[in-house]
Amino acid sequence: MIELIPAIDLIDGKCVRLTQGDYDTKKVYNEDPLEVAKMLSEDARYQDICDKTGASSATVSRVNRALHYGEDGYALVLERLKNESEDGSANRHE
Protein backbone atom coordinates (compact mmCIF):
# COMPACT_ATOMS: atom_id res chain seq x y z
CA MET A 1 0.00 0.00 0.00
CA ILE A 2 1.23 3.47 -0.90
CA GLU A 3 0.72 6.27 1.59
CA LEU A 4 0.23 9.70 0.04
CA ILE A 5 1.11 12.74 2.08
CA PRO A 6 -0.30 15.99 0.69
CA ALA A 7 1.87 19.07 0.82
CA ILE A 8 1.20 22.77 0.46
CA ASP A 9 4.03 24.99 -0.69
CA LEU A 10 4.05 28.56 0.60
CA ILE A 11 6.30 31.21 -0.89
CA ASP A 12 6.08 34.81 0.35
CA GLY A 13 2.87 33.92 2.20
CA LYS A 14 1.18 32.71 -0.98
CA CYS A 15 0.05 29.21 -1.80
CA VAL A 16 1.92 27.95 -4.87
CA ARG A 17 2.22 24.82 -6.99
CA LEU A 18 5.73 23.82 -8.00
CA THR A 19 6.53 21.57 -10.95
CA GLN A 20 8.79 18.83 -9.61
CA GLY A 21 9.92 21.13 -6.80
CA ASP A 22 11.30 23.75 -9.20
CA TYR A 23 10.81 27.25 -7.76
CA ASP A 24 11.17 28.79 -11.22
CA THR A 25 7.97 27.07 -12.36
CA LYS A 26 5.71 28.15 -9.51
CA LYS A 27 2.04 28.90 -10.16
CA VAL A 28 0.57 31.20 -7.52
CA TYR A 29 -2.83 30.38 -6.05
CA ASN A 30 -3.62 33.44 -4.01
CA GLU A 31 -7.14 34.40 -4.89
CA ASP A 32 -8.08 37.47 -2.90
CA PRO A 33 -11.56 38.52 -4.03
CA LEU A 34 -11.23 41.93 -2.37
CA GLU A 35 -8.01 42.64 -4.27
CA VAL A 36 -9.77 41.49 -7.46
CA ALA A 37 -12.69 43.85 -6.71
CA LYS A 38 -10.30 46.73 -6.03
CA MET A 39 -8.51 46.19 -9.33
CA LEU A 40 -11.82 45.88 -11.21
CA SER A 41 -13.01 49.15 -9.67
CA GLU A 42 -9.81 50.72 -11.02
CA ASP A 43 -10.65 49.40 -14.54
CA ALA A 44 -7.81 46.88 -14.65
CA ARG A 45 -7.89 44.30 -17.44
CA TYR A 46 -8.88 40.73 -16.58
CA GLN A 47 -5.51 39.35 -17.66
CA ASP A 48 -3.63 41.84 -15.48
CA ILE A 49 -5.82 40.89 -12.51
CA CYS A 50 -5.26 37.17 -13.11
CA ASP A 51 -1.50 37.69 -13.40
CA LYS A 52 -1.21 39.82 -10.26
CA THR A 53 -3.60 37.96 -7.95
CA GLY A 54 -3.44 34.41 -9.24
CA ALA A 55 -7.23 34.44 -9.54
CA SER A 56 -8.79 32.51 -12.39
CA SER A 57 -10.72 34.37 -15.08
CA ALA A 58 -13.86 32.67 -13.71
CA THR A 59 -13.18 34.19 -10.27
CA VAL A 60 -12.56 37.62 -11.80
CA SER A 61 -15.82 37.29 -13.72
CA ARG A 62 -17.78 36.28 -10.58
CA VAL A 63 -16.34 39.19 -8.59
CA ASN A 64 -17.07 41.58 -11.47
CA ARG A 65 -20.68 40.38 -11.60
CA ALA A 66 -21.04 40.80 -7.83
CA LEU A 67 -19.40 44.22 -7.98
CA HIS A 68 -21.78 45.52 -10.63
CA TYR A 69 -24.99 43.53 -10.08
CA GLY A 70 -24.77 42.29 -6.51
CA GLU A 71 -25.89 43.76 -3.22
CA ASP A 72 -23.04 46.34 -3.12
CA GLY A 73 -20.99 44.36 -0.58
CA TYR A 74 -17.69 44.86 -2.40
CA ALA A 75 -18.47 48.52 -3.10
CA LEU A 76 -19.25 49.09 0.59
CA VAL A 77 -16.01 47.45 1.76
CA LEU A 78 -13.92 49.31 -0.84
CA GLU A 79 -15.50 52.62 0.21
CA ARG A 80 -14.80 51.90 3.89
CA LEU A 81 -11.19 50.99 3.15
CA LYS A 82 -10.78 54.17 1.13
CA ASN A 83 -12.25 56.26 3.97
CA GLU A 84 -10.01 54.56 6.55
CA SER A 85 -6.99 55.19 4.36
CA GLU A 86 -7.90 58.86 3.95
CA ASP A 87 -8.59 59.23 7.69
CA GLY A 88 -5.24 57.62 8.48
CA SER A 89 -3.46 59.94 6.08
CA ALA A 90 -5.14 62.99 7.60
CA ASN A 91 -4.22 61.90 11.13
CA ARG A 92 -0.56 61.45 10.20
CA HIS A 93 -0.34 65.03 8.91
CA GLU A 94 -1.79 66.63 12.02
Please give a structural write-up:
The protein is an alpha+beta fold and 94 residues long. The protein has helices at 33-41, 46-53, 57-69, 73-92; strands at residues 9-11, 14-19, 22-29. It is built from four helices and three strands, in the order βββαααα. It has a three-stranded antiparallel β-sheet, with no helix packed on it. A hairpin with a 2-residue loop joins strand 1 and strand 2. Helix 1 runs antiparallel to helix 2 (46-53) and helix 1 packs across helix 3 (57-69). The protein is elongated.
Strand order of the largest sheet: 1-2-3
Low-confidence stretches: none
| Count of DSSP-assigned helices | 4
State the end-to-end CA separation. Answer: 68 Å
Q: Please, what is the average pLDDT?
A: 80
Strand content: 15-25%
Helix- and strand-based class? alpha+beta
Shape assignment: elongated
Can I get a quick summary?
With 94 residues, this protein is an alpha+beta fold. It contains four helices and three strands; from the N terminus they run E-E-E-H-H-H-H. The chain has helices spanning 33-41, 46-53, 57-69, 73-92, and strands spanning 9-11, 14-19, 22-29.
Layout: helices, strands, pairs:
Elements lengths: L8 E3 L2 E6 L2 E8 L3 H9 L4 H8 L3 H13 L3 H20 L2
Antiparallel strand pairs: 1-2, 2-3
Helix pairs in contact: 1-2, 1-3
Features:
18% strand, elongated
